[in-house]
Specification:
This protein is of the alpha+beta class. Helix content is 68%, strand content 10%.
Length: 395
């Protein structure tokens, strides 16, 4: 590290996830959405409480000025259905927040392993550049000695140029992966972390049909859609109740004013009935029915998507496991070749080019093996995310 630079901090995957859940603004947005839905529930419930207001007119004329209290007595279920709808939407918002949380955990996990993957890929391509640099030096020496043609030198230069281009690509992808991880964690500034790199992985053994059944019960997206369906159903009931009257009570104390003999206290029960509103009630009912149909269709569509996603992830998981076995054998073989090349080089029976080639082959095979492990871990994380965390959201 440069002189005076801050020492890189070791960052585990669990720490990265915990940081993301605490710092990523997406969680703040989700929490704010829940608070907004809670306020909408309280607003819907306010119709059950009395409304108290005052009206003051100067100069007093008749009994227009005073204090008034109105209380809705019964609206044939209009308010109760609106409250039911707002509570269902609150549950939906909470499930949306759970979706945001699970997506953030998955994105952080994927970004974490992508950084590790590109670190190994960049290292392997550095080794490849070193190999082609040695080859170019050798070809130039042969050319000067008359043992190789200019075309051989040119080919070595082209190979070295392509290797450097591959290295630049890997380094650029590594920086992009680091930026993605910082973004998931909600952190600004330079990447100053050392990630924990482990070759081990936990093998998953899941039954496809059981995974699908669990996902259909646990996925927060499906729970959110079902809560929205309940809200749309309540909205339809509330719209249909608009054809019924509203029974309310009123109490008022009106001041004595000009033209009035004494202050007046009144109390009574009223009936409010909308005779004609330009077919607005019909339009509201039609719209509520359409919303309900759309909500039910979205649920069925999501169920199909979930089943298809899980089946694909199960196939991807099997493929990732097979890739680990193949790349592990390749790495073992290249490791043995490297050990032999180092011994030959120590005994001065192998050139620097042969040693550099063996190191490059091993580095590439090791990067492929690590990539296979990371692919397995990422696929396992995607599968666990697809199945869902479970747990009902309190009303």
């Amino acid at each position: 590290a440069p002189s005076g630079a801050e020492e890189a901090r070791v960052l585990t995957l669990d720490e990265a996830i915990a940081t993301a859940l605490g710092e990523n603004p997406g969680m703040t947005v989700a929490d704010a959405a829940v608070e907004i839905s809670q306020s909408q529930v309280r607003a819907a419930q306010s119709a059950w409480y009395p409304e108290i207001y005052t009206r003051l007119i100067f100069p007093f004329i008749g009994r227009e000025s005073g204090f008034f209290l109105d209380q809705m007595i019964w609206d044939f279920g209009r308010t109760s259905n609106r409250v039911k709808s707002s509570k269902a939407l609150l549950r939906s918002t909470r499930f949306d927040g759970e979706t945001t949380k699970e997506d953030l955990i998955l994105n952080t996990t994927v970004s974490y392993y992508n950084v590790l993957s590109w670190q190994h890929a960049a290292d392997a391509r550095k080794r490849k550049v070193e190999e082609f640099e040695r080859r170019l030096e050798l070809k130039e020496a042969f050319y000067e000695a008359g043992r190789a043609g200019r075309a051989d030198v040119t080919k070595a230069e082209v190979d070295l140029g392509n290797a450097r281009l591959d290295l630049n690509t890997a380094e650029n992808e590594l920086e992009a992966a680091k930026a993605s991880l910082l973004n998931a964690m909600g952190i600004d500034g330079p990447f100053n972390y050392t990630l924990v790199d482990e070759e081990s992985y936990d093998k998953l053994d899941m039954n496809i049909e059981k995974s699908i059944d669990t996902a259909l019960d646990n996925r927060p997206e499906l729970k959110s859609l079902k809560a929205k369906e309940a809200a749309m159903n309540a909205d339809l009931s509330a719209a249909q109740k608009e054809y019924f009257p509203v029974i309310f009570g009123r109490t008022a104390y009106r001041f004595k004013g000009e033209g009035a003999e004494t202050p007046g206290f009144i109390a009574g029960v009223g009936l409010e009935f909308n005779i004609f509103d330009g077919f607005k009630k019909n339009a509201d009912i039609q719209g509520a029915r359409a919303q309900l149909r759309r909500s039910r269709a979205e649920i069925e569509t999501k169920k199909t998507e979930v089943e298809s996603e899980i089946r694909k992830l199960h196939r991807d998981l099997r493929l990732a496991e097979e890739n680990i076995a193949v790349t592990e054998e390749t790495r073992k073989s290249s490791e043995e070749t490297l050990a032999l090349a180092r011994e030959r080089y120590r005994l001065e029976r192998a050139s620097e080019v042969e040693l550099a080639e063996a190191e490059s082959i091993y580095s590439t095979a090791n990067a492929a093996y690590r990539q296979a492990i990371y692919d397995y871990r990422i696929t396992a994380a995607r599968l666990e995310r697809a199945i869902g965390g479970g747990g009902d959201i309190d009303q």
